[in-house]
Amino acid sequence: MDVKVFDNDTEAGKYAFELIKQGMDNGAKVLGLATGSTPVTMYQAMVNSDVDFSNMTSINLDEYVGMSPDNDQSYRYFMQSHLFDKKPFKETFVPNGLAKDPEEETKRYNKVIADHPIDIQVLGIGRNGHIGFNEPGSPFDAETRKVPLTQNTIDANARFFENKDDVPRYAYSMGIGSIMKSKKILLLAFGENKADAVQKMIEGPVTNDVPASILQKHPDVVVILDKAAASKL
Ligand code: GLP
């Protein structure tokens, strides 16, 4: 794993975007994208640039089950407001939180991924080492599926909801098997509350207990950190 440490998340986000630009110059057409607070500085760098994404396809990692794309807590809403409304892509895929049949939806999404192999996958990391919504214990070979969220993640997400009972309990998530098939992976992590997860991901054993640790086995991963997230390495 190639680990890069920056003074702050603005510099780190700009660097992540530089790698995406390089990838696009070398023919990348499909970006795997993530939500959460972490990739925001990277999306700002994309929006502030003069780069044209109208030939690009994006595939997002995950979405809350039961959440409408109009709900401002949905990941579709997040992607529209932070990136797609400002920088149009050719096509953008996010799991459909309102799908009637979860099995059909996961099948559909797996076909989307199979039809558009991901050139560069952007990841954040949960405080418990999850990637996407692949919580501890997730199988390393999984494809997209409906997953229950752990209490740890529900608690971490509660800050975004008025009422704790409104925090979703399930999500659709791209599986670790699909993530590992991406040609290149950029994992971003900022802040002291990610330092433990980052240390275990990079220096710990490869174990399902820390889903991100599997990235040690991927041939092209760049881990982009601020100083606080790197403080336990
Ligand atoms: C959520 C998302 C993950 C994200 C994580 C960290 O659980 N499903 O994709 O990496 O949160 O979020 P943040 O970047 O806000 O710390």
Write up this protein.
By secondary structure, the chain is of the alpha/beta class. The chain is built from seven helices and ten strands. It has helices at 9-25, 40-48, 75-84, 102-115, 151-157, 176-180, 195-203, and strands at residues 2-6, 30-33, 57-60, 62-64, 91-93, 120-123, 145-148, 170-173, 184-189, 221-226. The strands form two sheets. The protein has a seven-stranded parallel beta sheet with strand order 1-10-9-6-2-3-5, sandwiched between helices. Strands 4-8-7 form a three-stranded antiparallel beta sheet, covered by helices on one side. β2 (30-33), α2 and β3 (57-60) form a beta-alpha-beta unit. α1 crosses α2. It starts with a strand and ends in a 7-residue tail after the last strand. 44% of the residues are buried. The mean pLDDT is 96. Bound molecules: 2-amino-2-deoxy-6-O-phosphono-alpha-D-glucopyranose. 2-amino-2-deoxy-6-O-phosphono-alpha-D-glucopyranose is lined by residues 34-38, 61-62, 124-126, 132-133, 153. Residues 34-38, 61-62, 124-126, 132-133, 153 line the site of 2-amino-2-deoxy-6-O-phosphono-alpha-D-glucopyranose (GLP).
